[in-house]
Amino acid sequence: MKTLKNIYENIGLPRLIIGLFFIFLVVTSIVLGFSPAALFSDVLRRWLMYGTLVLAMVPGIQSGIGLNFGISLGISAGLLGSVFAMEISFLRNWNEVLGAGAPWLTLLLALLFGIIMAAILGTLYGMLLNRVKGSEMTVSTYVGFSVIAFMNIVWLSLAFKNGELSWPLQGRGLRNTASLSGSFGGLLSNPDVVQSTQPAWLHWLAFKIGDFTVPLGLILVFALLCFIIWLFFRSKLGIAMSAAGENQLFTTTTGINVDGKRIQGTAISTVLGAVGIILYAQTYGFLQLYNAPLMMGFASVASILIGGASVRRAKISHVLIGTLLFQGILVTALPVVNEVIEIGTLPEVLRIIISNGIILYALSKTKGGNQ
Amino acid sequence: MSQKTNVLQKAGSFLFDNKVMIAFAAICVAAIVLSGSPMTFIVDGVFTRITRNTFTVLALIIPVLAGLGLNFGIVIGAVAAQIAVFCVVYWGFGGFSGMLLSVLIATPLAVLFGYLVGKLFNRMKGAEMIAGLILGYFADGLYQLLFLVIIGGIIPVNNPKLIISGGVGVKNTIDLTGNLKYAIDSVRMVDIVTVLFYVVLAITLIKVVLHLLKKYQLNKGDFILFGVVGLLFGISYIPVIERFLSTDRLGLLDALTAVLIVLAVVQIIKIVKSIWIDKQPAKNLVKPILALLGYGLIFGLTFIPEIENMLLFVKLPVLPFLLIAGLCWFNHKILSTRLGQNMRTVGQSQSVAMASGINVDQTRVIAMIISTVLASWGQLIFLQNIGTFSTYGAHTQIAQFAIAALLVGGASVQKATNKQAIIGVILFHTLFIVAPQAGKQLFDNAQIGEYFRVFVSYGVIALSLAMHAWKQFKKEVQPPAEGIDLGNSALPPVVEKQQILNK
Is the pLDDT assigned to residue A255 strictly greater than 90? Predict the structure, then answer.
């Protein structure tokens, strides 16, 4: 009995409800006759697609800035890196010069640009957050919104030659969604793309077992990122950062530079955001510009909270569990709902209710009884 | 010499205190010049938007007073209003009686919602703003669930005009033409005067009865009020005036003239009073006389053809403006009540308030209820003026825009006044009107202007929240020389320690 109670307390009520709901959806969809293989490949794909963006929450929470709603900053850096890389690839005509290597180089260049910009922006952003201690979340939400609004102006003013990016017949402005099919879209995760563009010795990157798709390349990249972050928080630097996040007064007395650690945490979080959006776009096959990333921060925050993180503590396992549950529900809800009642927007409504409900729940847990 | 520096200092501190407003005014002027739009168009648009939005912006002031910060939760009030509007349209009511019914439905809903939000905020002290923001999204989700799934899906509703053709879910837009459109705007002035007269008559009669029962002492003010309203009611029977009052719109020129006359009368009464009754020295007359000259100058300006044309073009709906004025009066008056004083104390320091025996949690809940109810009424005014009810969009941006407008007017997380709200609405919506055209002229792309105004509305909130948090943080790190600053801090260190201990 006691162990049962322990397990319950470890899991927590919201996670239990959401977990049971996910299992219920999976069972229902299989009973309704959907192919489990197709369903699970979809869940796996979405899990990996959002994974890195959720992983970006960990350094933020651990370093003490709380839920980083300002991940939009990293997302914007990643998107900007991607469009620059694609434009350069187009101008240099890499597709013809390099052949199968072109998407790889574009991807690497996008990551490079994205990471550099995110590191700079993240550092500045961390300095801002050090000045608003105690209200980081409110400020970061609106900084995130402002950045997306500002980037809207940037997207609209960029004059690019690449036809995949810019509107046809207009000198200026980028498309709302730019297809990555001629670039790095699906390079790590889509068997069709890998098979048609890459040499035979790279075909292991993504393959099919029956109906089940294994995006092995993406799995490896995500696992590597998780491992790096896991390792980082076991290193001296990472432990100091966690300490800074946990107890500022104590940490200051031991001679650790709390503000510096917070800046580092924010910068790492922002960089992961940039990497995350590039991996997201890679999996999705499209770059979504303008207002598409506006609410991505909320989805990431909700995911890690569903996974069991709090405003002050987060682990890699929280990332994995949370993303699986949150994305899993969204993927499986759609076919089930369509079968029962024909309301296509219900999963979207569910997403809004679940994600914001869980954030509210977490906030009420952390700041309750502040007298 | 010292006076001169004093003036300079005053001017300096005025500039500093109003830096947000001044910067924004400069942007507005630049955008107006760039856009090249005719002033008639701009002024007309701004007044339309003042009618629509000011009430909601004013609904934000009381939570600021009570220390709850900017109330992002007003979305929930708007949701209450929208549920009411849907019911009224579905039942087929319309006109002013339909609007009254909407108010009757929306108000209890908003009271309930406000109560719940207040309770929730009491569990998240110091994080009200982020909680309110998330709560707004959460409420939006529940609202969508209600309107997309439950209406039609669970509650059978049969009305092809309102329901999506499959029978489940409410359509994207509901046309209010013919039922609630202009239900408040189109109330005739003569009706307002009549109702006002009977209300004042009833109040005065009650007071007289109470006076006779020796429970209330009649005073001069009661008679003056009754006299003025009675006079107004009396002259509304003069044919010329009756014809003028039987319209529902008031020309801006007439409105301006009326306001100037009233102000001038007030100043003349002041002058008369200070010369013949108080017998004060002539020095005190400088201000009223200057004011009179100013009014005269403004009145003179209206004779310039361009300005006159503009003023003749713009027509104001009367009742919404009276409601806005009423709310300003309410926001002002509540300060002198016991409740208002309690709110202020709670806003300044919760610990001090608690020490002096104020029920902090209850006061905060009341502030939230008032704000939510006011926001729901504001949304009703907005919807009846705009005439089409966008079912899933009308409420989503309301908190965002209302808060941005208030901040543009120079308000902060801790201080907001009626004046700031009104100036903010004017400036913010001026930019809204001219930005697309300015963007088109400047960048050859109207979309850029549109994105710019969205950026400004987010940016001004981000900036003001950051400045507030910064100030707060500095105060915490270096306590001021005077010492006590117990309340207000977003998350005082003591609490942080407590939380760690709780773990």
Answer: no
pLDDT tens digits, B340-369: 999 989 988 888 888 888 899 999 999 999
Domain match, B371 and B431 both:
yes
Nearest CA in chain A to B129: A138
Domain edge (last residue) among B219, B247, B275? B247
CA distance B469 to chain A (A): 5
Range scoring the smallest mean pLDDT among A11-25, A85-99, B483-497:
B483-497
B26, B148: one domain: yes
In the stretch 102-131 of chain B, residues with CB closer than 8 A to chain A read 120, 123-127, 129-131
Q: Is B150's Cβ below 8 Å from some Cβ in A?
A: no
State mean pLDDT over A229-258.
Answer: 82
Residues A10-58: tens digit of each pLDDT: 777 778 888 888 888 888 888 888 888 888 888 898 899 999 999 999 9
Residue B99 lies in a domain: yes
Domain count, chain B: 2
B114 and B213: one domain?
A: no
Q: Higher model confidence: residue A111 or residue A197? A: A111
Q: Is residue B499 part of a domain?
A: no
Smallest CA–CA separation between B146 and chain A, in Å? 10
- State the ipTM, two decimals: 0.82
Q: Do B470 and A132 touch (CB under 8 A)?
A: yes
Co-location of B333 and B445 in the same domain: yes
Same domain, B205 and B228: yes
DSSP B484: -
Q: Are residues B16 and B64 in the same domain?
A: yes
Q: Show residues of chain A in contact with B447, CB under 8 Å.
A: 156, 173
Q: Which domains does chain A have, with CATH numbers?
A: 34-357 (1.10.3470)
Q: Do A134 and B138 touch (CB under 8 A)?
A: no
B440 touches chain A (CB under 8 A): no
Question: Is B191 near chain A, with CB under 8 Å?
Answer: no
Which range is most confident: A356-360, B32-36, B38-42, B110-114?
A: B110-114
Q: What predicted TM-score, i.e. pTM, was given to this entire model?
A: 0.83
Q: Is B490 on the interface with A (CB under 8 A)?
A: yes
Range of the domain at B201: 188-247
| In a shared domain, residues B211 and B140 | no
Which candidate, A48, A53, A51, places its Cα nearest to that of A69? A53
Question: Do the domain assignments include residue B497?
Answer: no
Instruction: Report the C-alpha gap between A205 and A200 in whole angstroms.
Output: 10
| Contacts of residue B394, Cβ cutoff 8 Å, sequence gap at least 6 | B78, B82, B379, B382, B383
All residues of chain B having their beta carbon less than 8 Å from the beta carbon of residue A64 are none
Evaluate whether residue B501 is within a structural domain: no
Label the pairing between strands A207-209 and B249-251: unpaired
Given this model, what pLDDT does residue B477 score? 63
- Name residues 153-182 of chain B within 8 A of A (Cβ): 153, 166, 168-169
Which contiguous run of DSSP H or E holds residue B165?
Answer: none
Give the mutation candidate from B165, B447, B458, B467 for the A interface (greatest A CB count, under 10 A).
B458
CB contact under 8 A, A150 and B459: yes
| The last residue of a domain, from among B197, B217, B247 | B247
Closest partner residue to A135 (CB to CB) among B133, B490, B499 is B490
Question: Using a CB-CB distance cutoff of 8 angstroms, which residues of chain A are in contact with residue B499?
Answer: 312, 366
DSSP per-residue string spanning A306-336: HTT--SS---HHHHHHHHHHHHHHHHHHHHH
C-alpha distance from B158 to closest chain A C-alpha (Å): 17
For the purposes of burial, counting CB atoms within 10 Å of the CB of A68, is it exposed (0-12), middle (13-18) or buried (19 or more)? buried
Q: Show the beta-strand stretches assigned E in A90-247.
A: 177-179, 207-209, 212-214
Residues B43 and B8 in one domain: yes
pLDDT digits (tens, 9 = 90+) for B6-54: 777 777 777 777 777 888 888 888 888 888 888 888 888 899 999 999 9
Among candidate residues A221, A40, A129, the one with its CA nearest the CA of residue B470: A129
Residue to substitute from A72, A73, A125, A135, interface B, most B β-carbons within 10 A: A135
CA B6 distance to own-chain centroid:
35
Mean pLDDT over B392-405 rounds to 88
